[in-house]
Write a structure and sequence with these properties.
The complex is a heterodimer of chains A (225) and B (252).
Chain A (H helix, E strand, L loop, with lengths): L2 H18 L10 H11 L3 H15 L13 H14 L3 H35 L1 H5 L3 H37 L5 H27 L4 H18 L1
Helix pairs in contact in A: 1-2, 1-4, 1-7, 2-3, 2-4, 3-4, 3-5, 3-8, 4-5, 4-7, 5-7, 5-8
Chain B lengths: L10 H8 L13 H12 L8 H11 L10 H13 L4 H40 L3 H30 L4 H4 L2 H29 L6 H19 L6 H18 L2
Helix pairs in contact in B: 1-2, 1-6, 2-3, 2-4, 4-5, 4-6, 5-6, 5-8
Classes of the chains: A mainly alpha (225), B mainly alpha (252).
């Protein structure tokens, strides 16, 4: 993959990482969007969509409320698409999922780190904030957003580096049966996480009936296709 | 100042800043700094007549601890800014902010994180699984953000309109109906998406592998339900992939 394409993916991953919390929260951070656009950048929309769908299912396992800590699947999906693109075919999905899940974990840890750094910055600016100086407020806010942008760029860079390593060392080490097994494990885990996460949101009330109706409808459509 | 003589507040500037309300999220004041940044343009009128002390005190209060759903922070921004203009005592403004955290967080979580977002994303998954490709993604972004921007804009305007009586805004029928509808709509859309994406993602998996996939998905779901406090989707995925990589490396 050329350096130019890697840089475009890095820029896209940074925007995706910023969108998750700092703003504008227009949901380009959703794996479905992040993966599809990363795939389009690489001229491989199919792989981008497949990994976007896979990580969107993992995303259903998360409810980003309050100070909850959660994995970051946006930049992770960008890295996963990069890993999967070169290792085309069945191998791509499993390899991409492996790279993506590790990157998501790194992303989650980095979010906590940035929040701690922001807390220290707020403590340092305490007197200025209490004086009501708007310049202190705006500088603090802008510096925090910049910090998050650097974080998102570093997470994406780590993911892209992992993708390169996986392509170079893992792709050739697996047997053909192992390749299919990796894909089956990735899809199985994603479906389990998506279903469990959705049922947690739906609860045991009347929503469960609507969910069951949806599953029946979706199964019928899938069967008729 | 009466409503007719009051200059139009700079809602646009405040709204733009609200899009980054979580930019300085921290464990000290949570969204407080971001809320202060968004509220500041609405407080500038307080400087009129050289009354810098009132303005600075209001800006300092605006940046105190706050945490709610990011899309509904505008309601608190508008309401407290209006209360500051109306000369509501500082302690009452602080109490208003504190009182809004819980309801705005709960409403936003139900309406957006557990409603509108998974509903539109579920429809996008259906679209992709049925061959919609990039059109499904662009459709998702467009439709989702109509609701997103409309909610932010409504929240800011309603907060300013009601001021200290902002609780009235939370009882608006449209909001109540949207909250009641979002949960079943989400359940239906995601429920429909799951079998379709299962078919979409397992398209290249044949024969016995398909049975293995079903067993893994059911076992994974069972594990997640059984160990719900310890096991997350991420951990389950890593566990399955590590096991698969090991078996795949050993299996000739």
């Amino acid at each position: 993959m050329s350096l130019e394409l890697q840089l475009v993916l890095l820029a896209w991953g940074t925007l995706v990482g910023l969108d998750l919390v700092s703003g504008p929260q227009m949901m380009i951070a959703r794996p479905l969007v992040a993966g599809a656009i990363a795939g389009a950048v690489l001229g491989d929309v199919k792989t981008g969509l497949e990994l976007g769908v896979l990580f969107e299912l993992f995303q259903y396992d998360i409810l980003p409320v309050g100070a909850a800590r959660y994995p970051e699947y946006g930049p992770a999906t960008v890295a996963a698409v990069s890993a999967a693109h070169a290792a085309a075919g069945t191998l791509g999905l499993g390899l991409g999922a492996l790279v993506g899940l590790i990157t998501a974990m790194v992303g989650g840890l980095s979010l906590d780190g940035v929040r701690r750094l922001n807390s220290r910055a707020v403590q340092r600016a305490g007197a200025g904030l209490e004086s009501g100086d708007p310049r202190v407020l705006e500088r603090l806010h802008a510096a925090s957003i910049l910090r998050d942008a650097v974080r998102a760029a570093v997470v994406t860079a780590v993911g892209l580096a992992l993708a390169q390593l996986a392509r170079d060392f893992l792709a050739g080490a697996l047997t053909p049966k192992g390749v299919v097994l990796l894909q089956v494990a990735a899809v199985g885990a994603a479906l389990a996480a998506g279903t469990a996460g959705t049922l947690r949101l739906v609860g045991r009330g009347p929503g469960l009936r609507w969910f069951a109706l949806g599953v029946v409808g979706g199964t019928l459509v899938a069967w008729l296709r | 100042m009466t409503e007719t003589t009051r200059p139009r507040p700079p809602f646009g500037r405040s709204l733009l800043r609200l899009f980054t309300v979580q930019g300085s999220w921290n464990y000290e004041r949570m969204q407080g700094v971001g809320v202060g940044v968004a509220e500041e343009p609405l407080l500038r009128d307080l400087r009129a007549g050289g009354n810098g002390t009132v303005y600075r005190a209001a800006v300092a209060r605006a940046a105190h601890f706050f945490n709610a759903h990011p899309y509904l922070c505008g309601l608190a921004v508008g309401a407290t800014a209006r209360a500051e203009h109306d000369g509501v005592p500082p302690e009452q403004v602080e109490r208003l902010r504190t009182a809004l955290c819980g309801p705005l967080g709960s409403l936003g979580d139900r309406l957006v994180w557990a409603g509108w977002l998974p509903f539109t994303s579920g429809l996008a998954l259906v679209g992709v699984a049925l061959g919609g490709r990039l059109a499904a993604i662009l459709g998702f972004l467009f439709v989702y953000n109509i609701g997103h921007v409309a909610l932010r804009w409504w929240a800011l305007r309603a907060g300013w309109r009601y001021g200290a009586r902002v609780a009235v805004a939370l009882r608006e029928p449209v909001l109540q109906r949207a909250t009641a509808l979002s949960a079943p709509a989400m359940a239906l859309a995601v429920g429909m998406a799951l079998p379709l994406v299962a078919q979409y993602l397992s398209g290249t998996v044949q024969g016995g592998w398909r049975a293995a996939l079903t067993v893994l998905a059911v076992a994974g779901f069972g594990l997640l339900r059984w160990q719900r406090t310890r096991l997350t989707g991420l951990r389950l995925g890593l566990l399955f992939l590590a096991a698969a990589a090991l078996v795949g490396w050993l299996w000739p």
